[in-house]
Amino acid sequence: MEKIGKRFQEKVAIVTASTQGIGFGIAERLGLEGAAVVISSRRQTNVDEAVKKLKNQGIEVMGLVCHVSNAQQRKDLIKNTIQKYGKLDVVVCNAAANPSVDGIVETKEAVLDKLWEINVKASILLLQEAAPHLNKGSSIVFVSSIVGFHPLKGLAMYGVTKTALLGLTKALATEMAPDTRVNCIAPGFVPTYFASILTTDEQRRSLEEKTLLNRVGTTQDMAAAAAYLASDDASYVTGETLIVAGGMPSRL
Ligand code: NAP
Fold first, then answer.
1. For FRET with 222, which of 22, 33, 79, 147 sits at 20 to 30 Å CA-CA?
2. Which atom of ligand 1 lies nearest, measured to the CA of 195?
3. What percent of the chain is modeled with pLDDT above 70?
4. H or E element: which one contains 12?
5. pTM: predicted TM-score of the whole model, two decimal places
6. In sequence order, which residues have a C-beta less than 8 Å from that of residue 49 and are 6 or more positions away?
7. If residue 91 lies in a helix (H) or strand (E), which one and from where to where?
8. Any residues with Cβ below 6 Å from ligand 1, and which?
9. 4 C-alpha to center of ligand 1: Å?
C-alpha cells in the first residue's frame, strides 16, 4: 500500500472486534491513513498481539479488552479513548456472532437472544455511550453482510440480524444528521476464522462462482470500503449500505 492516502490524520477511530479479520483490516487501513485507532476484542492476548502488529507499521494505537455485550467494558472503551485522545471521529461497529447453524424455526430462544444482543443491541448501546463525544463531521460504519440481503443455509437468523443493521443505518442516519453520518458495508464472503464453516474447497468454489469477479473477498477489500464511508470522501453519503461482494446478487 505504498500510495495510500492520509484521510484520517488528526482523527480518532474506534473499531470493535478488531484483533483479527475484517475488523483488524479496517483498523489497519484507518491507522495507515493517519488515524489514532482504538482496537478491542474479548481476549487480552489477541489485543496485545494486534497492537504489536499495528505499532510495527508505525500506527498510533491503543488496545483494550471489550466484549461488546459487556456494559462496563463498552463504557471503559469510550472513556479510555476520550481520556487518551480527547475526541472521537469514527466508530466502526464490526462485532458479530453466529452461535448456531439451525434453521430459524429450530433456533433456541437463548441463541435468538444472543444474536440480537451481539449483532444489533450491543452496537446501539455502544453508540449511546459514544454519542455525546462524537464531533461534527464524525462517522459511524456498521458491518452487515451479503446474507442480510440473501439468506444462506446455516446463516439464516444471523442474516436477519444483518438485515436489521440496514434499517438501523437508515434510522440512525436520520437521527444523527447533520453532524454524524451513518453508513454500512455488507461484505460478501471473506475467508476469515469467522467464515471457516464455509471454507471447504467445494464451498469456496461455489461461493466464487456466485460472484461476477470470480473470487472471494479480502479483508483489505472490506477495509477500503469502510475507510471510504468513514472518510470525508463520503461527506455527502449517509444512510447507505455499500455491498462489497464481487457482484453477488444483492436486492432485498
Ligand atoms: P473474525 O476474523 O473471526 O474476527 C472476529 C474478531 O472479533 C476477532 O478479533 C475476535 O477476537 C472479535 N470478537 C468476536 N466476538 C466478539 C465480541 N463479542 N466482542 C468483541 N470482540 C469480539 O471475523 P470476521 O470474518 O472478520 O467478521 C467480522 C465482521 O464481518 C462480523 O460482523 C461478520 O458478521 C462480518 N462479515 C464477515 C463475513 C466473512 O465472510 N468473513 C462476511 C460478511 C460479514 P476475540 O476472539 O479476542 O474476541
1. 79
2. 41
3. 98
4. strand 12-15
5. 0.97
6. 19
7. strand 88-93
8. 16-23, 41-43, 46, 66-69, 94-96, 118, 143, 145, 187, 189-190, 192-195
9. 25
